[in-house]
Amino acid sequence: MKRTMPASPYVSRINQIDATQLDHEIYEIFRTQSKQITKNIQPGIIDKWQPELDVSIKFLIWYYSLRKGDATFGQQLLNLKYDRFNERKAFFHFLLATLPKYIQERIIDSQYIVISQNNKLKIYFEWTANIIRILELMNLILFLHRGSQPNLIERLLRISSQSAITNRLRNIGYSYMTRELLWHGLIELFTIGLPMVNFYYIKQKLNQLWSRRNVSGKIVNIQPTLNLSTNCPHCHQRPILPRYAGCQHIFCYYCLQAYFTATDTFPCPECGTNLYSSNMRSL
After folding, report:
1. Does the model's pTM come out above 0.85?
2. Which of 2, 5, 225, 238 has the fewest Cβ atoms within 10 Å of its own Cβ atom?
3. CA torsion 75→81→87→91, rounded to 10°?
Protein backbone atom coordinates (compact mmCIF):
# COMPACT_ATOMS: atom_id res chain seq x y z
CA MET A 1 0.00 0.00 0.00
CA LYS A 2 1.43 3.32 -1.09
CA ARG A 3 1.64 6.12 1.44
CA THR A 4 0.96 9.63 0.15
CA MET A 5 3.27 12.30 1.47
CA PRO A 6 1.66 15.45 2.90
CA ALA A 7 2.06 18.70 1.00
CA SER A 8 5.07 20.70 2.11
CA PRO A 9 4.33 24.32 3.15
CA TYR A 10 7.84 25.35 2.08
CA VAL A 11 8.13 27.36 -1.13
CA SER A 12 11.61 28.25 -2.35
CA ARG A 13 12.63 31.89 -2.38
CA ILE A 14 13.53 31.80 -6.07
CA ASN A 15 10.02 30.62 -6.99
CA GLN A 16 8.45 33.48 -5.08
CA ILE A 17 10.77 36.06 -6.64
CA ASP A 18 10.23 34.58 -10.12
CA ALA A 19 6.45 34.78 -9.64
CA THR A 20 6.72 38.49 -8.81
CA GLN A 21 8.99 39.05 -11.82
CA LEU A 22 6.58 37.20 -14.13
CA ASP A 23 3.69 39.37 -12.92
CA HIS A 24 5.72 42.49 -13.74
CA GLU A 25 6.65 41.16 -17.18
CA ILE A 26 3.02 40.30 -17.97
CA TYR A 27 2.01 43.84 -17.04
CA GLU A 28 4.79 45.28 -19.22
CA ILE A 29 3.65 43.15 -22.17
CA PHE A 30 0.11 44.55 -21.96
CA ARG A 31 1.46 48.07 -21.49
CA THR A 32 3.71 47.76 -24.54
CA GLN A 33 0.87 46.36 -26.65
CA SER A 34 -1.40 49.24 -25.63
CA LYS A 35 1.26 51.72 -26.75
CA GLN A 36 1.58 49.93 -30.08
CA ILE A 37 -2.19 50.13 -30.60
CA THR A 38 -2.33 53.86 -29.83
CA LYS A 39 0.90 54.91 -31.59
CA ASN A 40 -1.01 56.40 -34.55
CA ILE A 41 -3.13 58.64 -32.33
CA GLN A 42 -2.17 62.28 -32.09
CA PRO A 43 0.82 62.68 -29.72
CA GLY A 44 -0.01 63.90 -26.25
CA ILE A 45 -3.56 62.59 -26.02
CA ILE A 46 -2.71 59.14 -24.67
CA ASP A 47 0.23 60.39 -22.60
CA LYS A 48 -2.14 62.71 -20.78
CA TRP A 49 -4.18 59.74 -19.56
CA GLN A 50 -1.31 57.25 -19.18
CA PRO A 51 -1.71 56.82 -15.37
CA GLU A 52 -5.40 55.97 -15.80
CA LEU A 53 -4.55 53.57 -18.64
CA ASP A 54 -1.98 51.82 -16.44
CA VAL A 55 -4.56 51.43 -13.67
CA SER A 56 -7.00 49.95 -16.19
CA ILE A 57 -4.44 47.39 -17.33
CA LYS A 58 -3.68 46.43 -13.73
CA PHE A 59 -7.41 46.15 -13.02
CA LEU A 60 -7.94 43.73 -15.92
CA ILE A 61 -5.00 41.59 -14.83
CA TRP A 62 -6.25 41.63 -11.24
CA TYR A 63 -9.86 40.87 -12.21
CA TYR A 64 -8.99 37.74 -14.18
CA SER A 65 -6.45 36.48 -11.64
CA LEU A 66 -6.88 37.44 -7.97
CA ARG A 67 -10.49 38.57 -8.29
CA LYS A 68 -11.58 35.17 -9.60
CA GLY A 69 -8.98 33.06 -7.83
CA ASP A 70 -6.23 32.99 -5.25
CA ALA A 71 -3.15 33.30 -7.45
CA THR A 72 -1.65 35.84 -9.82
CA PHE A 73 -0.73 34.86 -13.37
CA GLY A 74 2.92 34.60 -12.36
CA GLN A 75 2.04 32.27 -9.48
CA GLN A 76 -0.14 30.13 -11.75
CA LEU A 77 2.79 29.62 -14.12
CA LEU A 78 4.87 28.30 -11.19
CA ASN A 79 2.06 26.30 -9.53
CA LEU A 80 1.76 28.64 -6.56
CA LYS A 81 -1.18 30.28 -4.81
CA TYR A 82 -1.98 32.43 -1.76
CA ASP A 83 -3.15 30.83 1.45
CA ARG A 84 -5.79 32.43 3.69
CA PHE A 85 -6.95 34.53 0.72
CA ASN A 86 -10.46 35.97 0.28
CA GLU A 87 -12.33 38.67 -1.67
CA ARG A 88 -11.64 41.33 0.95
CA LYS A 89 -7.90 40.74 0.82
CA ALA A 90 -8.05 40.64 -2.98
CA PHE A 91 -9.65 44.12 -3.02
CA PHE A 92 -7.02 45.58 -0.67
CA HIS A 93 -4.29 43.87 -2.69
CA PHE A 94 -5.46 45.77 -5.79
CA LEU A 95 -5.61 49.09 -3.93
CA LEU A 96 -2.15 48.73 -2.39
CA ALA A 97 -0.64 47.64 -5.71
CA THR A 98 -2.09 50.48 -7.81
CA LEU A 99 -2.97 53.49 -5.62
CA PRO A 100 0.57 54.54 -4.50
CA LYS A 101 1.90 54.37 -8.06
CA TYR A 102 -1.10 56.31 -9.39
CA ILE A 103 -0.65 59.06 -6.78
CA GLN A 104 3.05 59.25 -7.66
CA GLU A 105 2.41 59.65 -11.39
CA ARG A 106 -0.76 61.75 -11.37
CA ILE A 107 -0.35 64.01 -8.34
CA ILE A 108 3.35 64.34 -7.56
CA ASP A 109 5.08 64.01 -10.94
CA SER A 110 2.52 65.88 -13.03
CA GLN A 111 1.63 68.33 -10.20
CA TYR A 112 -2.06 67.85 -10.97
CA ILE A 113 -3.15 69.46 -7.72
CA VAL A 114 -2.37 72.99 -6.56
CA ILE A 115 0.60 72.92 -4.22
CA SER A 116 1.12 75.57 -1.56
CA GLN A 117 3.96 78.04 -1.69
CA ASN A 118 6.06 76.00 0.74
CA ASN A 119 5.43 72.79 -1.25
CA LYS A 120 4.33 71.13 1.99
CA LEU A 121 2.01 68.65 0.31
CA LYS A 122 4.68 67.56 -2.13
CA ILE A 123 7.17 67.17 0.71
CA TYR A 124 4.70 64.99 2.63
CA PHE A 125 4.19 62.74 -0.39
CA GLU A 126 7.95 62.45 -0.93
CA TRP A 127 8.53 61.57 2.73
CA THR A 128 5.80 58.94 2.52
CA ALA A 129 7.42 57.46 -0.59
CA ASN A 130 10.80 57.33 1.17
CA ILE A 131 9.26 55.60 4.19
CA ILE A 132 7.66 53.02 1.89
CA ARG A 133 11.04 52.34 0.25
CA ILE A 134 12.63 51.83 3.67
CA LEU A 135 9.85 49.42 4.67
CA GLU A 136 10.30 47.51 1.41
CA LEU A 137 14.02 47.17 2.14
CA MET A 138 13.30 45.90 5.66
CA ASN A 139 10.74 43.47 4.24
CA LEU A 140 13.33 42.20 1.73
CA ILE A 141 15.75 41.49 4.59
CA LEU A 142 13.02 39.61 6.48
CA PHE A 143 12.17 37.66 3.33
CA LEU A 144 15.78 36.60 2.82
CA HIS A 145 15.89 35.50 6.46
CA ARG A 146 12.52 33.75 6.77
CA GLY A 147 11.82 32.75 3.16
CA SER A 148 8.24 34.03 2.88
CA GLN A 149 6.32 37.17 1.82
CA PRO A 150 8.78 38.86 -0.58
CA ASN A 151 6.39 41.79 -1.14
CA LEU A 152 5.39 44.36 1.45
CA ILE A 153 1.75 43.99 0.37
CA GLU A 154 1.80 40.28 1.25
CA ARG A 155 3.16 41.05 4.71
CA LEU A 156 0.56 43.75 5.34
CA LEU A 157 -2.29 41.43 4.28
CA ARG A 158 -0.75 38.44 6.10
CA ILE A 159 -0.78 36.21 3.05
CA SER A 160 2.00 33.99 1.76
CA SER A 161 2.63 31.69 -1.16
CA GLN A 162 2.16 27.94 -1.02
CA SER A 163 2.34 25.13 -3.54
CA ALA A 164 -0.83 24.63 -5.55
CA ILE A 165 0.02 21.05 -6.55
CA THR A 166 1.11 18.44 -4.02
CA ASN A 167 4.50 16.77 -4.48
CA ARG A 168 5.26 18.34 -7.84
CA LEU A 169 8.67 19.80 -8.44
CA ARG A 170 9.32 22.81 -10.60
CA ASN A 171 10.26 21.89 -14.15
CA ILE A 172 13.55 23.41 -15.26
CA GLY A 173 14.12 23.57 -19.01
CA TYR A 174 17.32 23.45 -20.97
CA SER A 175 17.28 27.21 -21.48
CA TYR A 176 17.39 27.75 -17.71
CA MET A 177 20.23 25.27 -17.25
CA THR A 178 22.16 26.80 -20.15
CA ARG A 179 21.81 30.27 -18.66
CA GLU A 180 22.98 29.05 -15.25
CA LEU A 181 25.98 27.21 -16.70
CA LEU A 182 26.92 30.25 -18.76
CA TRP A 183 26.64 32.52 -15.73
CA HIS A 184 28.78 30.26 -13.54
CA GLY A 185 31.33 29.99 -16.35
CA LEU A 186 31.57 33.78 -16.56
CA ILE A 187 31.95 34.04 -12.79
CA GLU A 188 34.86 31.58 -12.85
CA LEU A 189 36.44 33.46 -15.75
CA PHE A 190 36.21 36.77 -13.92
CA THR A 191 37.47 35.23 -10.68
CA ILE A 192 40.56 33.84 -12.38
CA GLY A 193 41.19 36.56 -14.96
CA LEU A 194 40.55 39.83 -13.11
CA PRO A 195 43.37 39.42 -10.55
CA MET A 196 45.79 38.98 -13.47
CA VAL A 197 44.91 42.35 -15.01
CA ASN A 198 47.16 45.24 -13.98
CA PHE A 199 44.50 47.94 -13.77
CA TYR A 200 46.93 50.49 -12.40
CA TYR A 201 49.21 50.07 -15.42
CA ILE A 202 46.24 50.59 -17.76
CA LYS A 203 45.13 53.64 -15.77
CA GLN A 204 48.65 55.04 -15.91
CA LYS A 205 48.85 54.69 -19.69
CA LEU A 206 45.46 56.35 -20.13
CA ASN A 207 46.54 59.22 -17.90
CA GLN A 208 49.67 59.66 -19.95
CA LEU A 209 47.62 59.87 -23.14
CA TRP A 210 45.17 62.41 -21.79
CA SER A 211 47.36 64.35 -19.38
CA ARG A 212 48.38 67.85 -20.50
CA ARG A 213 51.23 68.21 -18.03
CA ASN A 214 54.83 68.31 -19.18
CA VAL A 215 56.30 65.03 -18.04
CA SER A 216 60.04 64.89 -17.59
CA GLY A 217 61.62 61.68 -18.81
CA LYS A 218 65.08 62.12 -17.39
CA ILE A 219 66.23 60.91 -14.00
CA VAL A 220 66.57 63.69 -11.43
CA ASN A 221 68.69 63.02 -8.35
CA ILE A 222 67.89 65.61 -5.74
CA GLN A 223 67.60 65.54 -1.97
CA PRO A 224 64.07 66.67 -0.98
CA THR A 225 63.43 68.47 2.28
CA LEU A 226 61.01 67.17 4.91
CA ASN A 227 59.24 69.83 7.01
CA LEU A 228 55.97 70.27 8.91
CA SER A 229 54.01 71.10 5.75
CA THR A 230 55.19 68.08 3.75
CA ASN A 231 52.43 65.69 2.67
CA CYS A 232 52.51 62.49 0.65
CA PRO A 233 51.35 63.18 -2.95
CA HIS A 234 49.28 59.99 -2.91
CA CYS A 235 47.44 59.95 0.41
CA HIS A 236 47.92 63.66 1.22
CA GLN A 237 48.89 62.80 4.80
CA ARG A 238 52.08 63.16 6.83
CA PRO A 239 54.58 60.73 5.22
CA ILE A 240 55.07 57.52 7.19
CA LEU A 241 58.52 55.97 6.70
CA PRO A 242 59.33 58.74 4.16
CA ARG A 243 60.76 57.74 0.80
CA TYR A 244 61.59 59.57 -2.43
CA ALA A 245 62.54 58.38 -5.91
CA GLY A 246 63.98 61.24 -7.95
CA CYS A 247 61.80 64.32 -7.47
CA GLN A 248 61.29 66.85 -4.70
CA HIS A 249 58.18 65.14 -3.34
CA ILE A 250 58.24 62.73 -0.41
CA PHE A 251 55.97 59.66 -0.26
CA CYS A 252 54.95 57.21 2.40
CA TYR A 253 56.86 53.97 2.07
CA TYR A 254 53.72 51.91 1.45
CA CYS A 255 52.27 54.43 -1.03
CA LEU A 256 55.44 54.50 -3.10
CA GLN A 257 56.01 50.76 -2.84
CA ALA A 258 52.45 50.12 -4.01
CA TYR A 259 53.17 52.13 -7.16
CA PHE A 260 56.39 50.25 -7.85
CA THR A 261 54.70 46.90 -7.21
CA ALA A 262 52.32 47.62 -10.07
CA THR A 263 54.91 49.11 -12.44
CA ASP A 264 58.63 49.91 -12.47
CA THR A 265 58.09 53.54 -13.40
CA PHE A 266 55.29 56.06 -13.00
CA PRO A 267 54.87 59.86 -13.14
CA CYS A 268 54.74 61.72 -9.85
CA PRO A 269 51.13 62.77 -9.14
CA GLU A 270 52.28 66.30 -8.25
CA CYS A 271 55.04 67.31 -10.68
CA GLY A 272 54.82 64.63 -13.37
CA THR A 273 58.48 63.58 -13.12
CA ASN A 274 59.04 59.96 -14.07
CA LEU A 275 60.02 57.97 -10.98
CA TYR A 276 61.88 54.66 -11.19
CA SER A 277 61.95 51.83 -8.66
CA SER A 278 65.76 51.72 -8.78
CA ASN A 279 65.89 55.32 -7.47
CA MET A 280 63.77 54.69 -4.40
CA ARG A 281 65.65 56.01 -1.38
CA SER A 282 65.03 56.46 2.32
CA LEU A 283 65.01 60.05 3.57
Report:
1. no
2. 2
3. -40
